[in-house]
Amino acid sequence: MNDFIQLFQYTFFQNALYASLLISILSAIIGTYIVARKNVFISGGITHASFGGIGIATTWV
Fold first, then answer.
1. Which of 13, 16, 50, 59 has CA atoms 20 to 30 A from the CA of 43?
2. In tens digits, what is the pLDDT along the chain, a chain of 61 residues?
3. Are 14 and 8 in contact (CB under 8 A)?
4. Which residues cross the membrane (predicted)?
């Protein structure tokens, strides 16, 4: 275990740890944004489809 901890005395390993932490946080934020935008597009598509259905239904009645 001491050998593993001693690896972090090197600047390269410290930079790699910082970079991996930063990338994981940024990926979580970007992934959440993309999923939220996808849900918005899906709901917009459903809304437009229902407006078309309502328009057809009112012309036939």
1. 59
2. 788 888 889 999 999 999 999 999 999 898 888 888 888 788 888 888 888 888 888 887 6
3. yes
4. 16-36
- Whole-prediction pTM value? 0.56
Transcribe 1-61 into DSSP letters.
Answer: -HHHHHGGGSHHHHHHHHHHHHHHHHHHHHHHHHHHHHHHHHHHHHHHHHHHHHHHHHHH-
Token representation of residue 18 = 């910082």
Domain count, the chain: 1
Residue 13 token pair: 């390993």
Token reading at 4: 């593993």
